[in-house]
Amino acid sequence: MPLAFYAIANFLLWSRDDVMMPLPTAHKLLDETHERIAGEYLQQVIPSPTRHRVRAIVTGRLSDGELTRAKVASAMAMSERTLRRRLEAEGTSFQQVLDDTRRELAEQYMSRGDLSLADIAYLLGFRDQSSLFRASTRWFGTSPSAPGTARLGAMATPLKTVPPLISGGSWLPKSAGRRRPESDNAAPRQDL
């Protein structure tokens, strides 16, 4: 293909045979060293995949009831011990990822103003509102205020993954047969 200036796009085109040819300067020992160095560099630059996978599962399943490390490990097709080991290698724990995710979602939900505290507690997977109050005090240094008032709006930070909405714009999870609590006498939930 001839060289063309002022073209719409810049590209180089090689035949498949050329690309598949072995490099004449290839060296097995250097290849292993380069792979190791590149792998170490990528681990420093690219965020931890296990932590983000756990966070995505936690975000989608918080309101489904008690969320345990065993359930998340099962959803990730690995043993609970492997999950714990991988998270430890990344400098975190399941409980830390769960708590961080709840805190960031709490900031978003509280800044909305259209959700009651019972709804927020339910969406975050808490057993009752008192668990939400304790967590809020731990996270933000204050308890959440009454519904309809500005709650932590200035503190809200965007979260990359938020539980999906189902048809009709409802925020309720897709879990079959579960209903959101109407009061403090909600069904047993996970407590911090």
Question: Which characteristics define this entry?
Answer:
single chain; 192 residues; mainly alpha; disordered C terminus
In whole angstroms, the N-to-C terminal distance is 65 Å
Mean pLDDT: 76
Fraction of residues in helix: 40-55%
Question: Order of helices and strands, N to C?
Answer: HHHHHHHH
Rg calc: 24 Å
List segments where confidence is low: pLDDT < 50 over at least 5 consecutive residues.
146-192
The helix/strand class is mainly alpha
Shape designation: elongated
Molecular structure report:
- This protein has about 190 residues and is mainly alpha-helical.
- It is about 45% helix and about 0% strand.
- It has 8 helices and no strands.
- Helix 4 crosses helix 5 (about 80-90).
Short description:
By secondary structure, the chain is mainly α. It is built from eight helices and no strands.
Could you give the topology of this structure?
Layout: H1 16-20, H2 28-45, H3 49-61, H4 69-75, H5 80-89, H6 94-112, H7 117-123, H8 129-140
Helix pairs in contact: 3-6, 4-5
